[in-house]
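Lay summary. Proteins are chains of building blocks that fold into shapes, and those shapes determine what they do. In this project we predict the shape from the chain. Here is one chain we studied, written as its sequence of building blocks.
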Amino acid sequence: MKDSPRQRGFTLLEVLIALAIVAMSVGALLGTITSSASNIIYLKEKTLAEWVALNRLAEVRIDQQMPAKGKRSGNTVMAGMRWEWQEEVIELPIKGMFRVEVRAHATGETVDDTRAVEKPAAQTLSPSTSSGSSKDSIAWTTSAVGVVGSARSDVREAVAAPFEGPPQNQQTGGPAGAPGAPAPPKVGAPSS
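And here is the predicted shape, written in a compact code that computers can read:
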């Protein structure tokens, strides 16, 4: 049985249709990859902005002074980028309680944070701005809200053992277990 010339290969129309299908598939695949990469970048920026806002909120909470009512803004460096933050402090109906909302976003400025730090690690404050400023129109990446109260402890001493140096009870003299007594021998150590 002889093959007819029509059955030996693909026609030009079949090849063009196959190429069109492949081109659309590759286009859809590239669109998916691009979308995934954009989402990863967005999530990274949102996470870092959240950390900046939470760091500022923690600074307000551990500060020895109660926060002043109103808005303040400032900036900090994290992950090689400069971040701008804005905090708003509102007094709550309960006396001595304040609501603190901190918003943050990246400024787009990259910073070399591998060099030695020349100033304190605390975030810097800018002068207070009025509520009708241009800062209100910024698309903030994230926002963190917390409450600060006036019931604060006056204890400013370390509450844990120091990380360096010998333990406090390894001095010589006195009966065992008393302050200044020698430490008991280690298990398995040769006795003299």
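What the prediction tells us: The two ends are 105 Å apart (CA to CA).
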